Description:
Low-confidence stretches: 1-7
Bound molecules: S-adenosyl-L-homocysteine
CATH class: Alpha Beta
Helix content: 25-40%
CATH topology: Rossmann fold
Radius of gyration: 17 Å
Number of domains: 1
Number of strands: 9
Shape: globular
Mean pLDDT: 95
Largest sheet: 7 strands, mixed
Amino acid sequence: MTLRPEGNGNDELTRARDEMVRYQLAERNIRDRRVLEAMARVPRHRFVDVALRSRAYDDHALPIGSGQTISQPYMVALMTEALGLSGGEKVLEIGTGSGYQTAILAEFTPRVFSIERSPQLSRSAAATLKELGYNNVILKTGDGTLGWPEHAPYDRIVVTAGAPDLPAPLFEQLAEKGILVIPVGDRDFQSLEVVVKRGGKARTSRLIDCAFVPLVGREGWDR
Ligand code: SAH
């Protein structure tokens, strides 16, 4: 029997992923079992540069090029849990980035749409998602602050970059009883807001302080 050269490395990464789920997520009150399972399944290390793979399961964000970052595992888990997915919802993500959060969403539902403003990041995310067999996600390059009206309404919307305010087109494109999760604040620090649409009105609650890269676009920050 021959050992594949990457064999040990993969075992180590799997162990690191299991530990991430246990210590960074479960012990910090991520309770939704399906979120924990999705985070245990998706190989986060595939969404970062080869040189950063050994750090992929560390407790922080990592650079993904173009001045952007893959969010901290805890933040991805918290946002996913806040979306309250039961499976099959139509979901819109703004800020594809590495495609990691996109893959987590695709573990819940085959109807995932994701918009990224950087063509380079969008191309690279598309390649990674395809390699890993996530064939249902639909990506596009553009200004996500305008949403994606052609496929609206969405049961869930998640914004993975920090906004000055909730972009009006996104709230418009949210279905009644839908849930939208978005970091809102200044350019450096935000609070993670959970917006539920009831009778056409927004009910907003705050989850936690956070620091995302800026949401740049017509209904976001200037570059
Ligand atoms: N979910 C991603 C997070 C990437 S960081 C991940 O886990 O990898 C946020 C991303 O939002 C960046 O890639 C940035 O280019 C993108 N972004 C910023 N403003 C945007 C906009 N108006 N529309 C779409 N994407 C935007």
